[in-house]
Specification:
By secondary structure, this protein is of the alpha/beta class. The protein is built from 5 helices and 5 strands. It has a 5-stranded parallel beta sheet, with helices on both faces.
Amino acid sequence: MEFVKPLEPILIVDDVKEIRDYLIDILTNLGFEEILESNDFDSAKPLLASKKPGVVFLDIELPDTDGTQILEFVNDHHPNTHVIMCSGHNSLENVQNTWELGAKGFIAKPFNAKKVDTVLKRLELIT
């Protein structure tokens, strides 16, 4: 199933280049074309403002700030952007905390194409 374009552009915020590349590959194979990337919050801010992504894949643990702070920033300043949190620590507390802060999805690392596909299809239902 091809996705509708309102989810694009998609922004990936993760400090690990290999994770960003892997997610870009998955998204491209799912039919997405406009995919942006950032390795930290400072470089993500201008992309959020200028490109107005429909979806942000956001790592919880970043070197310059905690991903939950970025989640709050996105919700406050870009309320139409859906945030999907990504973490290698998928404890129940971590997942619940991000949902309470307004995340629209959570995928645990290491993720695969099926997990990404599933979370994006759920987003399409609420968009």
